[in-house]
Design a protein that fits this description.
The chain is of the alpha/beta class. The chain has a domain of 153 residues: Rossmann fold (3-Layer(aba) Sandwich), CATH 3.40.50. 33% of the residues lie in helices and 29% in strands. It has a six-stranded mixed sheet. A four-stranded antiparallel sheet has the order 2-1-4-5, covered by helices on one side. Strand 7, helix 6 and strand 8 form a beta-alpha-beta unit. Helix 3 runs parallel beside helix 5. The C terminus is likely disordered.
């Protein structure tokens, strides 16, 4: 298997006035294609800073980050934006959808930025909604959908460009326990189809759906282990 991401000696230092805070302290790890990884840690552990770097939303102070074989360290902001749109799919705790816009148009948005023709955009968006179990809901405004359905729209949007990696930041944080389980079963199904997923969560029961768990503390990785016997797609069996 090839590495979708490789981090080597990543540090991130923030300067606040005359004080410096080292949020990440030389972390290194890789994630293979088809893995499902949960990143855990208390507030201030460095997990969110790591996620921002993985998502090309922030740059490390030192170290190297390769995404799908590309060294992103020397890319300018426009190149990073293109990489985010082409190689990454994002799923957020707050869904980040346009409320008065039909579900299908929310899903199409990344393709608009890619310059894909309208007919092809609609075809691919409808297929993505069907993939996440929302066939027939394409015309509903997201404000008319339940929290779980809104997160499914967000997942469909993340899938639309066939990204190398899906990054999910506390994807069940705004959902009740039953809906959270449904969303995690959807992530499991997508992972079993070969989609690589990295998820930040503070919930142990949510992390248990991943095949591998990386735990941060004080800017360092303190454990990196499989969560149990795994299937080829990385899911505990």
């Amino acid at each position: 298997m090839s590495n979708v991401i490789t981090l080597n000696g990543i540090s991130r230092v923030f300067t606040m006035g005359d004080q410096q805070f080292e949020a990440l302290k030389g972390i290194s790890f890789g994630v293979d294609a088809g893995e499902f990884v949960a990143i855990m840690g208390a507030s201030g552990s460095g997990k969110s800073t790591c996620m921002n770097i993985l998502g090309c939303l922030d740059r490390p102070t030192s170290g190297e980050y390769h995404l799908d074989g590309l060294d992103v360290g020397g890319l300018d902001p426009n190149q990073l934006a293109a990489i985010r749109n082409r190689k990454l799919g994002f799923v957020f705790q707050g869904f980040n959808l346009l409320a008065r816009t039909p579900a299908v148009e929310n899903v199409e948005l990344p393709l608009v930025y890619s310059g894909i023709h309208a007919k092809e955009r609609r075809k691919r968006a409808l297929a993505a909604l069907e993939q996440v179990g929302l066939a027939g809901k394409e015309g509903n405004h997201t404000s008319q959908l339940s929290g779980g359905q809104q997160q499914r729209v967000a997942i469909a949007r993340a899938l639309i460009n066939n990204p190398a990696l899906i990054l999910a930041d506390e994807p069940t944080g705004n959902l009740d326990s039953s809906t959270s389980e449904e969303i995690m079963k959807l992530f499991t199904s997508l992972n079993q189809q070969g989609i690589t997923i990295i998820m930040v969560t503070h919930e142990t029961d949510v992390a248990a759906f991943a095949g591998r768990r990386i735990t941060f503390r004080d800017g360092r990785i303190i454990s990196d282990s499989l969560t149990g016997p795994t299937s080829p797609a990385g899911r505990p069996v």
